[in-house]
Design brief:
By secondary structure, the chain is of the alpha/beta class. It has one domain: Collagenase (Catalytic Domain) (3-Layer(aba) Sandwich), CATH 3.40.390. It contains 5 helices and 5 strands; from the N terminus they run βαβαβββααα. It has helices spanning 22-36, 52-63, 100-110, 114-129, 138-154; strands spanning 2-11, 41-50, 71-75, 83-84, 91-99. Strands 1, 2, 3, 4 and 5 form a 5-stranded mixed β-sheet that branches. α1 packs parallel to α4, α1 (22-36) crosses α5 (138-154) and α4 (114-129) crosses α5 (138-154). The longest helix is centred in the C-terminal third of the chain and has 17 residues, at 138-154. The radius of gyration is 15 Å and the shape is globular.
Length: 169
């Protein structure tokens, strides 16, 4: 059973104002994924808001892809084993980096709220931190998408109509 979830959120971009309530939404998304996955114990997650320039730099540095993207996940665990924060005893799941510019553009493109988009990106990345992967497509990709939609629906962020995500991103 999930005991305590610490979500450290930092805003490392200045171009776009983060709407009121987004930080709470991110914390709710992180907690919901852990509860749905039956995560045991306490957890710690870092979420950073960045601009497109910074996420492009990170994408190039860590994935060898010289393009900006919407979100990057940096898991700290391997096969469900995570480093422990010695001060709190929490399992450190990893880092989520969200391009605010990309999130706003995608919300507009898909015709839904920025809350839905940032919620989706957070849930998507949390699943990556827990070991899920969609890069190869197939059943893993389908399972991940089902888990995303289940969690978002529970949080009141049900999708409104069709939703398409380019797998190349």
């Amino acid at each position: 059973m999930t005991k305590k979830v610490k979500v450290i959120i930092s805003n490392d971009q200045k171009d776009i104002k983060i709407p009121t309530g987004i930080r709470l939404l991110i914390r709710r998304c992180c907690t919901a994924v852990l509860v749905n996955e039956g995560f045991e114990g306490s957890a710690e997650v870092s979420v950073r808001f960045v601009d497109d320039k910074e996420i492009r730099h990170l994408n190039k540095q860590y994935r060898n892809k010289d393009v900006s993207t919407d979100v990057l996940s940096f898991p700290l665990g391997i096969d469900g084993v995570y480093d422990i924060n010695n001060d709190t005893g929490a399992q450190m799941l990893g880092d989520i980096v969200i391009s605010v510019q990309h999130a706003f553009e995608q919300a507009k493109r898909y015709g839904h709220s920025i809350q839905r988009e940032i919620g989706f990106l957070t849930v998507h990345s949390m699943l990556h931190l827990l070991g899920y992967d969609h890069e190869l497509g197939g059943i893993e990709s389908v399972r991940m998408r089902e888990k995303e939609e289940t969690t978002l629906t529970q949080l009141g962020l049900k999708r409104n109509g069709s939703y398409y995500m380019d797998d190349e991103v």
